[in-house]
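Retro notes (design track)

What went well: tokenization of the new backbones is finally stable.
What didn't: we kept losing track of which sequence belonged to which structure.
Fix going forward: every design gets posted as structure first, then sequence, in one message. First example under the new rule, 239 residues:
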């Protein structure tokens, strides 16, 4: 993969060379990312300080105002450990760390390049020392690193939604979400804690969330907008 500007950074992992980027001008940005580049300050207010991104990261990162709002939600005082199961380039992880509310934050990301971006971005925001980082599959890491129920824990997850096709669904079927459907995620997370927050498409089927909560917990759904535009929801599950 060819370098495209001086602010790219290489990481060798498992004999594969991968690249993260800080774009300084829209002329450097791939056409399918340009829309998101124009919104860069709503994604990271400190973008000009040298935020690193992968091209896929532009599509998946939570806008900073939403991440800040979700991270400042009401959590039980005895819950002081946060596990972010899909850390991405760090948007939500950083927001939770900036609240100073958690004794420890554990951030999991499968892709090594994306994880390096998250670590770097956390340094820019001055919160890296509050975060423990894990590279790998979140299901395996939860099983190995957190094998028992934790009374002091909240799991946050912003899972992949299966590509941009969700935008064209009037009601998004959470059982068809790819590569992980809602029931699969909840079964894994509930082995660790009953306090779970999931970041989902704005058109998600609320009936499916209520059906899961009926058997195990209550659920509070918060709808997030930026400048009048609907962006996403968070489902807060708790006993």
């Amino acid at each position: 993969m060819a370098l495209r500007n001086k602010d790219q950074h290489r990481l060798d992992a498992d004999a594969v060379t991968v690249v993260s980027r800080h774009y300084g001008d829209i002329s450097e940005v791939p056409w399918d990312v340009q829309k998101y580049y124009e919104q860069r300050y709503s994604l990271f207010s400190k973008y000009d300080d040298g935020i690193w991104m992968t091209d896929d990261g532009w599509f998946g990162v939570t806008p900073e105002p939403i991440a800040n709002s979700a991270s400042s939600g009401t959590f039980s005082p005895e819950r002081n450990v946060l596990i972010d199961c899909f850390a991405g380039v760090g948007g939500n992880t950083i927001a939770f760390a900036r609240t100073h509310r958690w004794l420890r934050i554990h951030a999991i990301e499968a892709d090594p390049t994306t994880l390096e971006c998250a670590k770097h971005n956390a340094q820019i925001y001055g919160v890296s020392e509050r975060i423990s980082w894990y590279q790998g599959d979140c299901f395996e890491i939860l099983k190995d690193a957190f094998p028992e129920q934790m009374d002091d824990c909240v799991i946050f997850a912003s899972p992949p939604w299966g590509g941009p096709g969700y935008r064209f669904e009037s009601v998004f079927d959470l059982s068809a979400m790819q590569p992980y459907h809602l029931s699969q995620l909840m079964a894994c997370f509930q082995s660790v804690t009953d306090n779970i927050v999931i970041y989902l498409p704005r058109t998600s089927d609320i009936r499916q969330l209520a059906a899961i909560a009926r058997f195990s917990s209550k659920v509070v759904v918060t709808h997030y907008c930026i400048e009048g535009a609907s962006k996403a929801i968070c489902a807060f599950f708790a006993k």
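Added context from the reviewer: Strands lie at 9-13, 16-20, 81-84, 104-109, 131-135, 153-157, 196-201, 218-226, 229-238.
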